[in-house]
Amino acid sequence: NIIAMAFEETREQQQMYNYFRSCIYIFLIIEIVMNLPITADNRATQFILDLLARFKVFTSVSGCKIAELICICVVCIGTKAEKALKFNLKTMVIYPVLAGLTLVGMCFIFHGMNIGMSWFGFPANRILYAICSVVGTMLVHQGLDGIAKYYNYKVGEDRFNFENESFQQS
């Protein structure tokens, strides 16, 4: 019965992990929708846009980025370790996080500037903002996830098992 309780707890933790992972990209989508000049032809769509506009966190790029970063940190805490992880600090953490933070910084710059061109009916600066926002958030998530996988692997490592052998549990 105790094993069943532990299994239930693990399932709940997995659901919570998946919820926060989804929240990262839900916030990202809402951020882009609210910060691109999108108009709605449909009354229901306009109602949803007006409803979201009431929440100041969605109309502020910095508010959305803070919410996304909080969700990324929560997700990384729940990241499972990988057994055969060849950890390379530069390629798995430093480069993705630096590139991601640079792109997130650039999204603030593109959001505030006016280039004077338009692509696909949207101002070019807002398209560049959206691209930098999506790619930057994904890179930060990837880099922090790499730290979590490595750290969680090291926490569970047996210091007396030098050969990294697996033993069947009873």
Automatic annotation (TrEMBL):
Keyword Ribonucleoprotein found: no
Keyword Transmembrane (UniProt): yes
Signal sequence interval, chain numbering: none
Record keywords: Membrane, Transmembrane, Transmembrane helix
Residue ranges annotated for the YWFCY domain, each copy included: 43-141
Pfam families, per database record: YWFCY
Transmembrane annotation, as ranges: 19-38, 58-81, 93-115, 127-144
UniProt protein name: Mobilization protein
Organism: gut metagenome
Higher taxonomy: unclassified sequences, metagenomes, organismal metagenomes
